[in-house]
Amino acid sequence: VAGSAVGVGLALTLPPEYRANARLVVESEQIPGDLAESTVQTAATEQLQIIAQRIKARDTLLDMADELGIYQSIERSAGEPLRADEIVSDLRERIVIEVTGGTTRRFEVNALLVDVSFTDSSPDLAAAVTNRVVTLMQQENREMRTDVSGQTLEFFEQEVERLNEELSRRGEEIIRFQEANRDALPESLEFRRNQLIAAQEEVLQIA
């Protein structure tokens, strides 16, 4: 009874916590891997891990806290600003980025999903931070895919240039071969046959 009473008292006195959630569906690259084997191919899960680390970087979190005013109420009540290390540590704990789906051990391909959530005593602030994290993830993902597309385009341009040079070289070799073997090539076969027939007719006339 005493424990229940203490639990109810704490539940009534503690401030409420709100958690905002967002879900992203990750699409695979539209460039076939077998067409650009020389370009750097990064798995989607690895890309998401890189993006999550970039978002949870120190400078990014401090800018987010300052832009959205996440700790303004705490700083006003405490009378002094929080240290940067405290802000970064707290945000890294409250911002949750979970990746689910993808290829399983049985090589079954499921939809790759990213769940983003943030917990705060203010529902509006929880939603604002979650939306901000989603926006940053989309920006980072767009920049990474743009870089990969640029590398792939550069690879294809180099391949086109290399194949054009190879084609020109092969064309020169064919021309030299034709000039060196003009009498033995199939192109002159009909002319040789006509010459042979004319010679045979001439032999018959002489005979």
Structural class: alpha+beta
Helix count, DSSP H or I runs of 4 or more residues? 7
Give the H and E element order.
Answer: HEHHHHEEHH
Widest beta sheet: strand line-up: 1-3-2
Oligomer: single chain
User: What value does the average pLDDT take?
Assistant: 81
Q: Report strand %.
A: 5-15%
Give the fraction of residues assigned to helices. Answer: 55-70%
Q: Specify the biggest β-sheet.
A: 3 strands, antiparallel
Distance between the termini: 137 Å
Overall form: rod-shaped
Q: Total number of β-strand segments?
A: 3
Poorly predicted regions are 37-41
Report the C-alpha radius of gyration, rounded: 36 Å
What report would you give on this structure?
By secondary structure, this protein is of the alpha+beta class. Helices cover 62% and strands 14% of the residues. It is built from 7 helices and 3 strands; from the N terminus they run αβααααββαα. The protein has helices spanning 2-13, 44-55, 58-68, 72-78, 84-94, 123-180, 189-206; strands at 18-26, 95-103, 109-120. Helix 2 (44-55) packs across helix 6 (123-180) and helix 3 crosses helix 5 (84-94). The longest helix is centred in the last third of the chain and has 58 residues, at 123-180. The protein is rod-shaped. Residues 37-41 have low confidence and may be disordered.
